[in-house]
Design a protein that fits this description.
22 helices, about 75% helix, disordered N terminus
Length: about 425
């Protein structure tokens, strides 16, 4: 019996899907030897979990560990495994959370803009092109940013679907794993989700204190949470002296840091730019930049509440602000741009009337990110672009794209 044209067409996507998954699976298997042998965070994370089990101070016991204590608590089960098994398990966590991030972003995007099956193919393709650099950076650095982003998206999904407990837990877990998602924990207030906000704050406090309760450090007065707030969060967020060995990241002398703070510190450094020494006024200039940025982001955020796909645009502004206002934002942190990238691509497929203003900004953002890569830009050019804040500027351009979309005129929307 000869299959009909319709049945053949229906079977074709299944075959393409199987081939795609086979290629992805093979690539992940082939990449694992490089993941397991390259320098990255896995060994530090596993050691931190073991240190917490022993009641040791994390920074002293696991040199290089600068993350909240709840993440070390999260790593305890993996630290009980042999080193090779712990690395393999962490590789699985990175893969699973990266895939989970992509699927939740898809779910939110489809629900917000009514993306069809045919359009979804293009949304996936262009989103991967725009975000692949940062997804790869998570694997290259063995980072935990996809894990944080996953919980943040779980919270955002719960918020958009009016699932209070799920939303509160997701946002609380993200904030307990990393400080910057505290901005997203405030986001429910914009939509008057008082119960979700209060529950999220309570759960975040519980999760953050859990390591001190279950695995009290020695001596007892050197609490994990207190030590982290004073030694790391205080140094970065409050402007006090950061922990030893991290000043180059906080003060911007490392090109790997692409936050606004590092961008401003490099901008006033007379070694990099020719217009004089303004290092004495660096903090004043930084505060002015923060003020302008926060007012701009707040205006876009408030306007986004009236736009199609309000939750996506509001969350995109918060995600971008997390990266810009954080004292340290390295390449792997920018995997969170997966959300605004997918939202923008989906919206542009539906609304060609904004292409003339949005597409050039999006293309410029993409080019600046590519130029910050050793491939294909080359080591010399990529390091120069990083020193000029290429990724920082690219992210600000992405915020400009969101502004173009949410501030578009009503007559354009009707057209």
């Amino acid at each position: 019996m000869t299959p009909t044209q319709d049945s053949a067409a229906a079977a074709s996507p299944g075959r393409y899907s199987a081939v795609t998954w086979a290629v992805i699976g093979l690539a992940l298997v082939l990449y694992y030897p490089q993941f397991s042998t390259s320098y990255g965070g896995t060994a530090i994370f596993l050691l931190a979990g073991d240190c917490m089990l022993q009641g040791e101070r994390l920074a002293a016991c696991s040199p290089g560990y600068s993350y909240p204590p709840f993440f070390a608590f999260f790593m305890i089960p993996l630290s009980l495994l042999p080193l090779w098994a712990g690395k393999l398990a962490w590789y699985g966590v990175v893969i699973a959370t990266t895939y989970g991030c992509f699927r939740i972003c898809e779910t939110l995007t489809i629900g917000s803009f009514g993306v069809t099956r045919k359009e979804l193919v293009w949304v996936r393709l262009f989103t991967l092109v725009l975000s692949f650099k940062f997804v790869l950076a998570v694997f290259a650095n063995q980072a935990y940013d996809s894990l944080v982003f996953f919980f943040l998206l779980v919270g955002l999904y719960g918020l958009s679907e009016n699932k209070t407990l799920l939303g509160a837990f997701g946002l609380a877990a993200a904030a307990a794993l990393k400080a910057t998602p505290l901005l997203m924990l405030l986001y429910p207030l914009l939509h008057r989700k008082w119960k979700l906000f209060a529950l999220g704050v309570g759960l975040c406090a519980v999760l953050s204190l859990l390591p001190d309760v279950l695995f009290p450090p020695s001596p007892p007065n050197a609490g994990y949470l207190r030590t982290w707030v004073v030694g790391f969060a205080g140094g970065g967020l409050l402007g006090t002296s950061p922990a030893e060995g991290y000043s180059q990241f906080f003060q911007g002398s490392s090109n790997l840091n692409q936050s606004l703070k590092a961008f401003v510190y490099r901008l006033v450094d007379p070694r990099d730019l020719p217009w004089g020494d303004f290092t004495g006024q660096a903090q004043v200039i930084l505060n002015a930049v923060y003020l302008v940025y926060c007012l701009t982001a707040l205006a876009i955020l408030l306007r986004s509440a009236k736009a199609e796909g309000a939750h996506l645009w509001g969350a995109s502004v918060v995600v971008i602000s997390m990266l810009m206002l954080s004292p340290i934002s390295s390449k792997s942190h920018f995997v969170a741009l997966l959300l605004p990238h997918m939202a923008i691509v989906a919206y542009l497929l539906k609304h060609r009337e904004v292409w003339a203003r949005a597409v050039p900004l999006l293309c410029a953002s993409f080019v600046l990110n590519v130029l910050a890569s050793r491939w294909p830009a080359g080591r010399g050019l990529s390091e120069k672009m990083m020193s000029l804040g290429s990724i920082t500027i690219a992210t600000l351009l992405l915020l400009a794209v969101v502004a173009v979309i949410v501030f578009r005129r009503e007559k354009d929307a009707k057209r």
